[in-house]
From TrEMBL:
InterPro entries: DUF4479, NA-bd_OB-fold, tRNA-bd_dom, tRNA_bind_bactPheRS, YtpR-like_sf. PROSITE patterns: TRBD (PS50886). Keywords: RNA-binding, tRNA-binding. Residues 91-202 form the TRNA-binding domain. It comes from the Bacteria. This is tRNA-binding domain protein. CDD domains: tRNA_bind_bactPheRS. Pfam families: DUF4479, tRNA_bind. The lineage of its organism: Bacteria, Bacillati, Bacillota, Bacilli, Lactobacillales. One of its GO terms (molecular function) is tRNA binding.
Length: 211
């Protein structure tokens, strides 16, 4: 898992790299321009902050999530080594927003407004995703934010439970994806049939969905 974000205006020249979900007890250690955040109980690395990162990666003209290339991850590992940390970052370039197909939908056992879906994504993999979308139904194509996705508002999708039922991902609305002119109301974004299940969701193409 490798989730990276950068916002120079808000945070300065700092790249935030997340490797695992937050835990209740965490601590940090700083060496040079790198701060490592870790789980106090296990010592597991949760993430890093790379200060003055433009000296390593050059100018990053983005504000939000960055999908780091294999070369960029290698450069960051060199920085970790130089600071005395273990160079343990692994590239993760696969899109976390994919076209899914809702194969099955059942009522949530402990909620009158949630449903439990079986949703097909890449390579025929099936995910159990709990959804609160009022327009949810079997047989539709949707946008799945898989575990490890960072939503446009900064929310990170992790495995979890909703009212006691496991959920691995999120079926997203056009509004949550910030598709231009998407309706300002709850509900899954139902894609046209020519979108191919398992393919990365094309945000550029989607700009015309509500035009």
């Amino acid at each position: 898992m490798l989730i990276s974000s950068y916002n120079k205006k808000a945070l300065g020249d700092v790249l935030i790299v997340i490797c695992a979900p937050d835990v209740e007890q965490q601590a940090s250690e700083t060496r040079g321009s790198v701060t490592r955040i870790f789980d106090v109980a296990t010592g597991e690395t949760l993430g890093y902050n790379f200060d003055q990162v433009s000296k390593t990666l050059g100018d990053l003209s983005v504000a939000g999530q960055i999908v780091l290339t294999t070369d960029q991850v290698g450069q960051l590992n060199d920085v970790l080594s130089a600071a005395g940390f273990t160079p343990d970052l692994m590239p993760d370039t696969r899109s976390k927003f994919v076209v899914g197909y809702v194969k099955k939908m059942t009522p949530h056992p402990d909620s009158d407004h949630l449903t439990v879906t079986t949703t097909v994504v890449e390579e025929g993999k099936e995910l159990q995703i709990v959804s609160g979308s009022p327009n949810m139904q079997a047989g539709i194509k949707v946008v799945v934010a898989e575990v490890g996705a960072m939503m446009p508002d900064g929310l990170i999708i992790w495995p979890g439970k909703l009212r006691g039922v496991e959920s691995n991902g999120m079926i997203s609305s056009g509004r949550e994806l910030r598709i231009p002119n998407a309706p300002n109301r709850p509900g899954a974004l139902i894609l046209p049939d020519d979108y191919e299940v398992g393919q990365p969701f094309d945000f550029e193409r989607a700009k015309t969905l509500f035009s």
